[in-house]
Q: What sequence folds into this?
C-alpha cells in the first residue's frame, strides 16, 4: 500500500462520517490522526522490512555471515549470481539497430512459410558461482584477458545462455565494476585472432577498436596476431602522433623497432604499474614473416629492465605469451615482476592465482576464446594486498550496446568487402562434382524433401539474416557463419566450392542446409537419373550420394562441432537429433 | 492521548517491519544464500573446523583427475565419489560445467553421514593444442565447501599429426617464392609414410611442391611422445598471382586408423615493392589522407617503402617529383635492412610545414590530390606513385 493511498483512505473515511455542522479544523481531524498516522506508519514499516529483499541488480549486498577475512566490509558482487532462466531473445537497446545492414531482406519465401527461429531451450535453472565474495573495494583492479582466438562473440550459436565470452559481455562486466566505483585497468596478453586473411585483418582491426573503447592500457601480441600483414598491423597498432597505442612487445616489432613500445607505465588508483609484454621462444618460432623483427625473450627483458626499474613502480606486471613452464621460468629469472599473466594453460583458467616458487610473484591464466576475465584486486592491506577472482563471462552480464554496434559494423565491413574482397574464391569440389540445390531432389525424393522442409535445416540461412538472439546484427555476409548455413561450402575452412552459395540473390537454390550438405554434390547423380545411362553408372552414382547412418554422425559433426553445438556431443545425443530429421 | 499515540506508533512500526521481513523470508526461503564462502579449495581437504557440526563433503581420491593422455576427438569419462564425512545430511546439486564436459545426474542428492554418491564426468578431447583441462561444479550445503570443483586434465594426442597444422606465407614477393618446413609425426606407431598428396586448389597447385625425408632422432625428441616422423619442405615457386593464397594439401598416410592429414596454406602474394604506413594511409589506393591541416600547425607522417625480391639489396629509390612542391616536404631516408636483409625498408617522410600556403587537394579522385613520384631501379617497377589528400586552411 503506498503512502498516498493511506492518506486518501483516511480522508475518505473522514468525509463520509463528517457531521454537516462545521467544526474547527483541528477538532475535525483530531479523531482521525491516530488512524491515518498508524496506517501511514504501517506502510512505511512494511516498506522498510521489504528493503531487505535482494535486488535484481545485486549492486549492493548484505554482509557475509562470517567475514573474518573481509574485516566486516561489504562484498560487491557483480552481475546477478542468482539462478537464471533462459530468457527469450529481445532486441537490445542502443544504437546497434541503426547500423543493421540494409541488405537484410531475405528472399527465401513469404514470411508465413518461415517458422520462427529455433526457440531458446526450455527454461532451465543454471546456478552461477557468486563473485567477489568478501572483497572490500580494491584500490585498483586489474582486468585481465587474452587468447580471444577470433571469438569476438561466444563460440557458436547454441544459445547465449549456454555460452561464455565475447566483447559484448566483456565490456558489460568491466562497466559494472566501474559503476561500483572500482578503478579498473584492463590488460590483454594477446592473440586476438587465429586465422589469416582479409577477414582476420578486419576482425583484428575491429577488436583493436573495441579494446580501445574499453580503455585497455596494455595489449600484448600472440603469434597469430603477428601473422597478419605488416601493413595492417602497423596501421592498427603503431603509435601515431599524439595518440599512443596500447599495443606493446619487448621482443617483437613490426618492421621498425621504433614503432613498438617495449613497456608502458600506468598510473591509476594511486599506484604506478610497469607493464611489459613478451613472446616466448616457441611462440617466436611460429612467426615466419620477414617483416617481424624478433629477439630472444630473456635478452630483450634484460635490455629493458634497467629502464623499467628506473621508473620506480609500485608493481611490475609481465604479460607473457608463452606456456606455463616458459612463463614460470621467465619470472624466476626476472623475479622483479610481481604478477605474470600467462597465455599458457588449457581450456579454463584455474580458480586461483598460483604462487611462483622462488619468487614473490603470482601467475594468472586467461583461458581460451576470451570466455573468462581474471580480476586481480590490489588492496592497501599488508595482510592481503592481492586477491584474484576468475570471472566467467556468462549471461549474468549485460550486453554492451557500444560493443554490439561494433559487431554490427564488423558485419557491415564484411558485407562491403564481399567474398572477393575477402580473398575468398570458390574452388572445385574434390570429386569435381557440382551442387544443384535441394529442389532438384524433390522429383524423386518427395517424402524426404517434405521431411527436410519441416526441419530447422531448411531455414538455416534465415537464422543468419534474422538471428534469434542479438537480432540487430545479421550475419549472412560472414563466411565463418555461412559455411554451415548454406549449400556448397567447406564447413571448417570457410570457403565455397564451385557452384556453391555465393549470395542470397546470386544463388537462390543454395540457401539453407540442404540435402547436398550431407549427401555431397548431386550434379552427376541428377544428370544420369534424368538423361539415363548404364545401370552400373546409375548404381555407382546413387551409392556416391548415399550416407549410411553409422557414418552420418561424423558428417553432422563437421558443423555440429563442440563450439557450435555442445549438446550434440553428449552421450546419446546423435540419436535424439536424428529423430528430428529422420528420413 | 499523546502517550497512546506514541505507543500505537511504536507498535505499528514493529508490526510493519515484522510483516515486511516475513514476506521477504517466505519468498526467498528456498534460495541458497549468495554469500557462501567461495574460491576455497574443496574436495579432498577436510573441513578446517573439525569441531563443526553438520555435513562435510569429501571427494574420495581427490577432485582433480589426470587422465594422462587420450586420442584427439575421443571421449573419456571418470567417476568421482563424494562422501559425507559429517554428522548431518549433505545436499548435492549439479552446477555448471565447462562446454566439453557433461555431468551425470546425481542419483542420490542427499547423503546421510557416511553415505557416498557417484558422479560421472564425460568429456570429449577437443582442444586447441595438446593440453586439456575442463571442470564441473557440484554445489553442497557444506558451509566450508559450498562448491566442489571436479577437474580433469591431461594431454591430447593424435595417431598422426602435422606440426604446424597450417602454414602462413605472409606477404610473399611475387618474384621470389619461398619455402617452409612442416613435420608429420606418428604416435604409438613405428612407420609413417605419405602415400598420396592432393591439392584442393588445382589453379595454384603447380606452384607448390612438397618433399619429405625421415626425421632424425633429435628432431623426433622435439615432439613429445612421437615414435616416428617425417620432415617436409614446402617450396612455393615464384609467379603466383598477386593476392590471397588459399590452398589445402591433403595427405594420405599409410596409417589405416588415421584420417587424412590436411595442411592449410594461406597467405598473400605481393609485389616486390609495397608501402605501409599509419592508419591515415590506404595501402590499396596508395593515398595518405592528412585531411584538413591547420596552417599554423602543419602535419607529418612517415611511410615505409618495403622492397623484397631477388633484387632488393640493389634497388635504389629517388624522389623525382612532388606536387605541390612548395607545400609538401618529402624526404627519403637511408634504407634499413630487416631480418638480415630479407627486406629493405626505405622510410619516406612527408610533411606539410607550418606556415604553408592555403591549398586544397581534397578531391575524391587521385588526379585532384597531391602527388609524389618516386623513381626506382627495380627491373620491373620503375615508378611508385603516392597520393596525398589534404587541404591547408
A:
Amino acid at each position: 500500500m503506498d503512502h498516498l493511498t493511506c492518506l486518501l483512505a483516511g480522508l475518505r473515511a473522514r468525509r463520509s462520517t463528517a457531521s454537516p455542522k462545521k467544526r474547527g479544523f483541528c477538532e475535525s481531524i483530531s479523531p482521525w490522526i491516530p488512524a491515518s498516522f498508524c496506517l501511514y506508519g504501517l506502510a512505511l514499516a512494511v516498506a522498510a522490512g521489504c528493503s531487505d529483499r535482494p535486488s535484481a541488480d545485486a549492486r549492493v549486498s548484505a554482509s557475509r555471515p562470517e567475514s573474518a577475512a573481509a574485516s566486516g566490509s561489504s562484498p560487491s558482487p557483480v552481475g546477478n549470481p542468482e539462478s537464471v532462466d533462459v530468457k527469450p531473445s529481445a532486441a537490445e537497446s542502443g544504437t546497434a539497430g541503426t547500423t543493421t545492414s540494409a541488405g537484410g531482406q531475405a528472399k527465401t519465401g513469404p514470411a508465413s512459410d518461415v517458422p520462427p527461429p529455433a526457440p531458446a531451450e526450455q527454461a532451465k535453472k543454471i546456478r552461477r558461482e557468486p563473485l567477489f565474495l568478501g572483497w572490500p573495494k580494491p584500490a585498483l583492479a586489474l582486468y585481465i584477458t587474452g587468447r580471444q582466438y577470433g571469438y569476438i562473440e561466444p563460440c557458436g550459436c547454441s544459445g547465449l545462455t549456454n555460452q561464455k565470452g565475447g566483447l559484448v559481455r566483456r565490456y558489460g562486466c568491466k562497466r559494472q565494476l566501474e559503476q561500483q566505483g572500482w578503478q579498473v585497468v584492463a590488460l590483454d596478453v594477446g592473440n586476438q585472432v587465429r586465422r589469416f586473411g582479409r577477414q582476420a585483418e578486419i576482425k583484428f582491426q575491429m577488436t583493436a577498436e573495441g579494446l580501445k573503447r574499453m580503455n585497455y592500457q596494455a595489449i600484448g601480441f600472440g603469434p597469430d596476431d603477428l601473422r597478419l600483414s605488416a601493413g595492417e598491423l602497423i596501421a592498427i597498432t603503431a603509435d601515431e602522433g599524439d595518440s599512443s597505442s596500447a599495443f606493446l612487445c619487448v621482443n617483437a616489432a613490426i618492421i621498425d623497432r621504433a614503432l613498438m613500445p617495449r613497456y608502458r607505465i600506468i598510473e591509476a588508483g594511486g599506484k604506478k604499474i610497469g607493464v611489459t609484454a613478451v613472446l616466448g621462444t616457441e611462440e617466436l618460432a611460429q612467426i615466419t614473416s620477414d617483416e617481424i623483427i624478433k629477439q630472444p625473450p630473456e635478452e630483450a627483458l634484460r635490455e629493458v629492465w634497467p629502464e623499467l626499474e628506473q621508473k620506480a613502480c609500485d608493481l611490475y606486471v609481465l604479460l607473457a605469451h608463452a606456456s606455463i613452464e616458459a612463463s614460470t621460468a621467465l619470472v624466476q629469472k626476472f623475479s622483479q615482476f610481481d604478477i605474470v599473466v600467462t597465455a599458457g594453460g588449457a581450456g579454463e583458467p584455474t580458480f586461483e592465482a598460483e604462487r611462483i616458487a622462488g619468487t614473490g610473484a603470482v601467475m594468472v591464466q586467461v583461458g581460451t576464446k576470451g570466455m573468462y576475465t581474471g580480476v586481480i584486486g590490489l588492496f592497501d592491506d599488508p595482510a592481503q594486498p592481492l586477491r584474484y577472482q576468475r570471472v566467467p563471462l556468462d549471461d549474468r552480464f549485460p550486453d554492451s550496446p557500444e560493443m554490439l554496434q561494433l559487431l554490427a559494423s564488423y558485419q557491415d565491413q564484411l558485407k562491403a568487402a564481399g567474398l572477393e574482397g575477402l580473398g575468398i574464391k570458390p574452388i572445385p569440389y574434390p570429386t569435381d562434382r557440382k551442387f544443384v540445390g535441394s529442389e532438384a531432389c524433390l522429383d524423386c525424393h518427395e517424402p524426404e524433401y517434405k521431411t527436410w522442409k519441416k526441419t530447422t535445416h531448411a531455414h538455416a540461412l534465415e537464422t543468419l539474416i534474422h538471428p534469434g538472439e542479438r537480432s540487430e546484427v545479421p550475419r549472412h555476409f560472414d563466411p565463418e557463419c555461412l559455411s554451415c548455413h548454406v549449400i556448397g561450402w567447406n564447413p571448417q575452412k570457410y570457403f565455397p566450392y564451385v557452384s556453391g552459395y555465393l549470395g542470397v540473390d546470386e544463388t537462390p537454390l543454395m540457401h539453407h542446409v540442404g540435402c547436398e550438405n550431407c549427401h555431397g554434390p548431386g550434379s552427376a547423380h541428377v544428370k544420369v537419373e534424368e538423361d539415363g545411362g548404364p545401370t552400373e553408372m546409375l548404381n555407382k552414382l546413387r551409392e556416391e550420394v548415399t550416407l549410411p547412418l553409422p557414418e552420418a554422425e561424423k558428417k553432422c559433426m563437421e558443423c555440429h562441432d563442440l563450439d557450435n553445438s555442445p549438446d550434440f556431443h553428449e552421450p546419446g545425443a546423435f540419436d535424439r537429433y536424428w529423430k528430428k530429421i529422420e528420413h | 492521548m499523546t502517550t497512546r499515540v506514541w505507543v500505537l506508533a511504536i507498535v505499528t512500526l514493529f508490526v510493519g517491519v515484522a510483516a515486511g521481513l516475513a514476506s521477504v523470508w517466505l519468498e526467498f526461503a528456498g534460495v541458497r544464500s549468495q554469500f557462501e564462502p567461495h574460491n576455497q579449495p574443496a574436495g579432498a581437504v577436510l573441513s578446517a573446523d573439525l569441531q563443526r557440526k553438520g555435513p562435510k563433503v569429501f571427494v574420495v581420491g581427490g577432485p582433480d583427475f589426470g587422465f594422462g593422455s587420450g586420442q584427439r576427438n575421443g571421449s573419456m569419462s571418470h567417476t568421482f565419489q563424494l562422501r559425507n564425512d559429517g554428522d548431518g545430511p549433505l545436499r548435492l546439486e549439479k552446477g555448471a560445467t565447462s562446454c566439453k564436459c557433461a555431468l551425470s545426474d546425481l542419483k542420490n542428492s542427499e547423503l546421510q553421514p557416511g553415505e557416498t554418491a557417484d558422479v560421472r564426468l564425460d568429456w570429449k578431447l577437443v582442444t586447441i593444442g595438446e593440453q586439456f583441462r575442463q571442470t564441473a561444479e557440484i554445489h553442497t550445503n557444506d558451509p566450508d565447501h559450498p562448491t566442489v570443483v571436479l577437474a580433469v586434465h591431461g594431454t591430447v594426442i593424435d595417431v598422426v599429426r602435422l606440426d604446424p597444422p597450417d602454414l602462413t606465407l605472409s606477404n610473399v614477393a611475387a618474384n621470389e617464392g619461398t619455402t617452409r618446413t612442416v613435420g608429420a609425426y606418428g604416435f604409438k606407431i613405428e612407420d609413417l609414410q605419405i602415400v598420396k598428396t592432393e591439392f584442393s586448389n588445382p589453379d595454384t597447385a603447380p606452384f607448390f611442391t612438397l618433399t619429405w625425408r625421415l626425421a632424425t632422432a633429435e628432431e623426433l625428441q622435439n615432439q613429445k611422445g612421437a615414435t616416428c616422423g617425417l620432415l617436409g619442405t614446402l617450396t612455393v615457386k615464384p609467379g603466383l598471382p598477386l593476392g590471397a593464397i588459399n590452398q589445402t594439401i591433403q595427405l594420405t598416410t599409410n596409417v589405416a586408423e588415421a584420417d587424412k592429414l590436411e595442411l592449410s596454406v594461406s597467405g598473400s602474394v605481393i609485389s616486390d615493392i609495397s608501402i605501409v604506413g599509419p592508419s591515415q594511409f590506404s595501402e590499396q589506393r596508395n593515398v595518405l589522407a592528412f585531411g584538413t591541416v591547420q596552417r599554423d600547425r602543419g602535419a607529418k607522417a612517415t611511410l615505409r617503402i618495403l622492397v623484397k625480391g631477388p633484387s632488393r639489396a640493389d634497388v635504389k629509390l629517388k624522389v623525382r617529383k612532388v606536387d605541390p612542391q612548395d607545400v609538401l616536404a618529402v624526404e627519403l631516408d637511408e634504407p634499413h635492412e630487416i631480418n638480415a636483409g630479407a627486406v629493405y625498408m626505405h622510410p619516406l617522410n612527408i610533411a606539410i610545414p607550418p606556415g604553408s600556403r592555403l591549398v586544397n587537394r581534397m578531391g575524391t579522385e587521385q588526379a585532384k590530390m597531391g602527388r609524389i613520384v618516386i623513381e626506382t631501379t627495380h627491373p620491373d617497377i620503375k615508378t611508385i606513385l603516392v597520393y596525398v589528400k589534404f587541404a591547408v586552411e
In short: Confidence is low (pLDDT under 50) at residues 27-49 of chain B. DSSP finds two helices and 28 strands in chain B. The first strand of chain B starts at residue 57 and ends at 60. Chain B touches chain A through 89 residues (CB under 8 Å).
